[in-house]
Amino acid sequence: MNEANNWVEKSKKHLWLPFTQMKDYEENPLIIAEGEGVYLTDVHGKKYLDGYSSLWLNVHGHRKREIDEAIIEQLQKISHSTLLGATNIPATELAEKLVEITPENLTRVFYSDSGAEAVEIALKLAFQYWRNLGHSSKQKFVTTKNGYHGDTVGAISVGAVDIFHTVYHPLMFDSYKVSFPNAYRNEHSDLEDVKNECLLEIEQLFAEKHEEIAAFIIEGMIQGAGGMNVMPDGYLKGIEQLCKKYNILLIVDEVATGFGRTGKMFSVEHENVQPDLMTIAKGITGGYLPIAATMTSEKVYEAFYGDYTELKTFFHGHSYTGNQLGCAAALANLELYKKEDIINTVQNKADFIAEKLQSLQELEHVGDIRQLGLMVGVELVKDKETKEPFPWGDRVGYYATLKMRDLGMLSRPLGDVVVFMPPLATTFEELEQMITIMKQAIKETTEVLATP
Ligand code: PMP
Question: At which positions is pyridoxal 5'-phosphate bound (predicted)?
């Protein structure tokens, strides 16, 4: 057995992969050995374009010299010391930088290790905030249908993508789930009406239940894992206004949308929204190391400040929180945003791909193409006219991405939505190549499935 096959056999024997049916993995194993720029290479030497930024987080491509060097430099000082009751230099410097680049009202940084944990922290903070202020009836959360905030028990309790959550229902706490203004699947053609109805539904809920609602949690400007559903203009702003009016905290989850993904550093900038809490992760280290953070306003922070005996302390913190190597990577990453003018280039690239993606509309089973910045979902449907989906068991999104893999590009689907989220540094030429592969893969897959 050659070395590559040996790795494959070992991976089948011992590993259990996240969000993966291992029977699928066994049929189509993949082991990445190296990366360079927007390419990943597997153990057999096959190269793939990284069409999903290694799960929505890579920014500058793989093996970016500046980030590599920053990690090596930090390694020569120290790799890790705890943040429980102490801090370190990179974590302190990064906190200052994060406060500079996030909305003005956010002044405090609570670190963690993953997007889901940043969400758990936001939920616990919002809950305890009201308790600390003496309003302990405010314990519930409001979320949008099809919203996604991670896979831990708190995060799934405020999530609403049925396929991920149904199994765990008995474990979850109840949240209010309000309608989302979906542009593709709605009863009216006028999205402005749909948006206003959704905002009215929220206002009615708030008017009736504000005494028991701690916070509203929502992704920034686009629902990611729920199918890449872009929010209509004014929707997030409308929610911010309602939260203020009814004394409810606003948590914006920028885990997927932060760090330039939507064409702004943070998606809340599209509408000048200032959340009380904001979760960030993924792109924070350029896609290198597991750092996340929950940003809060000073108002939230102050509610936790006092004598230890008052039990206002925030009881949360994991072993690796504020890891120096991760923070050093994040600092180098943020420097690159300035040096390489990433945000402006994302806007140009977004315009470029919007035009190129139009050619996918020709395909018989492309129902909708949704995009904000470099965050794209292509929804495949059985019937374009009626928007009838393919039968669930057909797994058309899964097979389309497997075909993409054959053709030299990696991604993961969201049901029948093919995801396209390349690293922000992908060149125009590489973007075009990726779109060509996607088109070819969708065409071949849907032709086979649609044949009676
Ligand atoms: N929130 C959002 C909006 C996400 O898209 C995700 C992951 N895709 C998460 C939270 C969870 O992040 P992580 O995988 O780092 O836990």
Answer: 115-116, 253, 318-319
